[in-house]
Design goal:
The complex is a heterodimer of chains A (427) and B (412). Chain A contains 16 helices and eleven strands. Chain A has 427 residues and is an alpha+beta fold. In chain A, helix 10 crosses helix 16 and helix 11 runs antiparallel to helix 12. The termini of chain A are far apart. With 412 residues, chain B is of the alpha+beta class. Chain B has two domains: 203 residues, Cytochrome Bc1 Complex, Chain A, domain 1; 181 residues, 2-Layer Sandwich (Cytochrome Bc1 Complex, Chain A, domain 1), CATH 3.30.830.10. Chain B is 42% helix and 19% strand. In chain B, the strands form two sheets. In chain B, strands 1-2-6-3-5-4 form a six-stranded mixed β-sheet, sandwiched between helices. In chain B, strands 7-11-8-10-9 form a five-stranded mixed β-sheet, sandwiched between helices. In chain B, helix 3 runs parallel beside helix 8. The longest helix of chain B has 20 residues. The chains are: A alpha+beta (427), B alpha+beta (412).
């Protein structure tokens, strides 16, 4: 008979395996980071530009530039471009975050050469046709109306606005005015200034060999994408000091079955010495299924389907946030319980058993976060965006292993005081 | 190519092993052959509620999560109309804890009132969060009810109504467990950096003595062929009109399944899909329009859903969709267009082979539908589809009397 009561013995959790790959430089100076995986055909190519929404005064401008890249060039219209890219079996994903704009191509390696000949033209000669812009604006306006029905969406917008006031680019939200107020020439100006080899790097992962790199060089490496304009580098964020409005704010929406809650504050980016410690503290409080908030608010009280906390980091700043959707009748009680859990963190040292559990859980998460080349490419991109080296992850893991209960208590006292908190309730 | 080994234990548990040396992790994926389709029509949402209870402690282990977290593991589960699927990933050297945890909850749950009470509340909040407070969130609930008269696919996984969940009691929970949670009703996939020998040893050690529960699946009522178009209009506080059209299609293992999947790609796969190109971009009838198949084990639904542009009536919107459908039912599509959607399907399949957990889930599902060999051979089934098949199957599906239409109207 086996013993079903006692957990089987277990070992230490291995360290993740990661190093920044050797850079391959294209003829026109673009850096390529190749991450080879043992796959048949799958290949992911990320074309990254330091051209996120923080670089435009109108927050949707950078998003539109990215999104409409594939809607027309000097020789091809939107239908031709999508037909060609689809025929080659590729999937194109366009993303624009606060810091970065990105074009990701998922394809089979054997089709890369043909795909890149289309992509090269997009990057060199996009024209932003007026009719495509009108369609884009109309769709955005209508989707905005749908988002405005969602408590969680409103809560998130209002939370960012309070955290980053005075038109700070990290706090801006997209409204009707923003959508209506840009023109084709605004898009072309931004495109000419930011979509340049000097402002670009590539991460290629999956089936990557020397020949793959040559194929990339023969297309994306040859042109200078000469748009007769030098890149404009960001000055916007650094000039606007971060000012948050603290306190509790309620917003009415017609949706009364549940209330959406955001509770948090501005912190710092990844380079701050307390970044790692706050990640551990946030995990303990609300960052995993067995966290204190999940246990209390979901597993004991059944107020919600889920509650979580996280430390979000962007290049110039970051923040701490607790998010949940709760039964409307218990929204105040939920806030009380959140605050009770924070006071406990401030006053009572976490015991060894719980701290070890959180540490091991996080070490396991690290293995998952670096499992497979496509995950590794995401971790690498985080380093590049934030302009930090690979020792970042090693320091992170050392901190997880070594952090003490007292350090966590100190962090809770330093960063989670009620008078520093912005709280948003939408229902 | 995904290599795997299959073995059935004397108690009926199906074990599938897949070795993957490129990962530092190991995965256990257990699929129980029970989903919302196996529920009593008066107690819908139960399979999913039960999934929540599986995390409330088992016979010998009071907490499922903590022992897994301490070894660096993570887990989750999902329920759909056909299956309930539990999965965990853990650093490969600590996989034994996974076997210990999963086997104990297959052996017997800790049935307790408190866990049931709390999870009922949690699921009710999930119901609200995902279906009731989202704009258009209840559309699919209404569409199922319209499209099916008989088959249990007529209710969604979350349940037909909140009261069904609120009324669940401990007696129901116990009955459900012994009826469906058994080695002879489960498919376990162990994948990742773990050898076949170790997998078999640990499986026999932890699962070998769980009794066979002689699970019998009663055959489910068959949906009769739809002989008349069904239409329903609902009004809700949403910003724009939406239309949902659903046609009955074949089952997951029917020879026309892959053709049907490619038809949905021709209509809506990527920017060049016919619906998007013509009705969103060219004519601007819709601001959003998609075609997809539900992919259920039993005969499922082919769905087209879209949000109407301002000032467009339901009549125009519906006619425009039907006109696009005529372009594939009345004419043969060009070879090149078929090649396009096949190429896209091949890319998706190439990526599906790059993630261990993904592979484990796919293996379990393929085994569940009795087609484990499809894990490597389904590519061929897609490749074999001809332009004539696209036309033939389109004609079989897109008949007016085979269609249910939900008009989701705004409150003016």
């Amino acid at each position: 008979m086996i013993n079903r009561i006692i957990q089987p013995p277990f070992g230490e959790i291995a360290d993740f395996n990661f190093s920044v790959p050797n850079i391959f430089v294209l003829s026109n100076g673009i850096k390529v980071y190749p991450i080879n995986g043992n796959y048949n055909e799958a290949l992911k190519l990320e074309i990254c530009f330091e051209a996120g929404s923080k670089f435009s005064l109108n927050p949707i401008l950078a998003i539109a530039v990215n999104s409409l890249l594939t809607e027309g060039t000097k020789t091809k219209n939107s239908i031709q471009i999508s037909n060609e890219l689809d025929f080659l079996g590729s999937f194109i994903e366009k993303e624009c975050s606060l810091d970065q704009a990105k074009l990701t191509i998922y394809s089979q390696e054997k089709n890369l050469k043909k795909i890149l000949s289309v992509v090269n033209e997009i990057l060199d000669q996009a024209i932003y046709p007026k009719n495509e812009i009108e369609i884009f604006k109309n769709i955005k306006l209508q989707k905005l109306q749908i988002n405005k029905e969602k408590n969680a969406w409103i809560a998130n917008q209002e939370f960012k606005k309070k955290l980053y006031k005075n038109d700070h680019p990290y706090g801006k939200s997209i409204n009707e005015d923003a959508i209506n107020s840009f023109s084709s020439s605004d898009l072309i100006d931004f495109y000419n200034s930011f979509y340049n080899p000097e402002n670009c790097y590539l991460i290629v992962s999956g089936k990557v060999n020397e020949q793959t790199l040559n194929v990339i060089n023969e297309s994306l490496g040859q042109k200078n994408w000469n748009k007769n304009s030098s890149p404009i580098k960001n000055t916007i964020t650094k000039n606007i000091p971060i000012v948050s409005e603290k306190g509790s704010f309620k917003f009415d929406n017609s949706n009364k079955a549940q209330a959406s809650i955001k509770y948090g504050r501005v912190l710092f980016n990844r380079t701050h010495p307390d970044f790692f410690g706050m990640q551990v503290l946030s995990t303990l409080l609300g960052g995993y299924f067995g966290s204190r908030l999940m246990k209390n608010i979901r597993e004991e009280k059944g107020y919600t389907y889920g509650i979580g906390s996280s430390v979000v980091s962007n290049k110039d700043s970051g923040y701490f946030v607790i998010s949940t959707e709760v039964k409307n009748e218990v929204k105040e009680l939920t806030i009380q319980e959140i605050e009770k859990e924070i006071v406990t963190l401030q006053n009572v040292l976490v015991n060894t058993e719980e701290l070890d559990l959180v540490k091991n859980y996080m070490l396991g998460s690290f293995l998952r976060m670096f499992d497979g080349v496509f995950s590794k490419s995401e971790r690498l991109n985080t380093l590049i965006i934030n302009d930090i080296d690979e020792s970042h992850y090693l320091k992170y893991i050392e901190k997880i292993k070594n952090i003490s209960a007292i350090e966590l208590q100190n962090l809770a006292n330093k960063y989670l005081n009620k008078h520093d908190i912005t709280e948003i309730i939408v229902c | 190519m995904i290599h795997f080994t299959k073995k059935i234990l004397p108690n009926g548990l199906t074990l599938i092993h897949h070795f993957d040396e490129d990962t530092t992790l190991a995965v256990i994926n257990i699929l129980y052959k029970v989903g919302a389709r196996n529920e009593n029509p008066n107690k819908t949402g139960f399979a999913h509620l039960f999934e929540h209870l599986m995390f409330g402690g088992s016979k010998n282990i009071p907490s499922y999560d903590a022992p897994l977290q301490i070894v660096g593991g993570e887990n989750n589960a999902f329920t759909n109309n056909d299956i309930t699927n539990y999965y965990l990933t853990v650093p490969a050297n600590n996989i034994e804890t996974g076997f210990w945890l999963e086997s104990d909850r297959m052996l017997e749950l800790d049935f307790n009132e408190n866990s049931l009470d709390v999870q009922k509340k949690v699921v009710c909040e999930e119901f609200k969060q995902r279906y009731l407070t989202q704009p258009y969130g209840d559309a699919f609930l209404k569409l199922r009810k319209l499209a099916y008269t008989t088959h249990p696919y007529r209710w969604p996984t979350i349940g037909m109504e909140l009261s069904h969940i609120e009324q669940a009691n401990l007696k129901d929970v116990k009955e459900f467990f012994y009826k469906f949670y058994a080695p002879d009703n489960a498919i376990m996939v162990v994948a990742g950096n773990i050898t076949l020998e170790k997998t078999i040893d640990l499986t026999e050690k932890y699962f070998g003595d769980i009794p066979n529960r002689d699970v019998h699946h009663i055959s489910l009522p068959t949906e009769p062929p739809q002989i008349e178009a069904r239409k329903l209009t609902v009004k809700s506080d949403v910003p724009m009109k939406a239309i949902y059209k659903a046609w009955h299609m074949c089952s997951r293992i029917h020879p026309d399944y892959q053709t049907t999947d490619l038809i949905s790609d021709i209509l809506s796969g990527g920017q060049s899909g016919r619906l998007f190109q013509t009705l969103v971009k060219e004519k601007q009838i819709f601001v959003d329009l998609n075609a997809y198949i539900t992919g259920d084990v039993d005969p499922g639904l082919f769905v087209i859903e879209g949000k109407l542009n301002q000032n467009i009536t339901f009549e125009i919107a519906e006619k425009e969709i039907n006109d696009i459908l005529k372009t594939i039912t009345e004419l043969l599509i060009e070879e090149k267009e078929l090649e396009k959607v096949k190429n896209k399907a091949l890319t998706l399949m190439a990526f599906a082979e790059t993630n261990t957990l993904n592979k484990a889930m796919s293996l379990a599902f393929a085994e569940m539908i009795g087609k484990i060999e499809w894990i490597n051979e389904e590519v061929e089934l897609y490749n074999k589809v001809k332009v004539e098949d696209i036309k033939r199957v389109s004609n079989a599906i897109f008949k007016e009397n085979n269609c249910s239409t939900l008009f989701y109207d705004t409150i003016e």
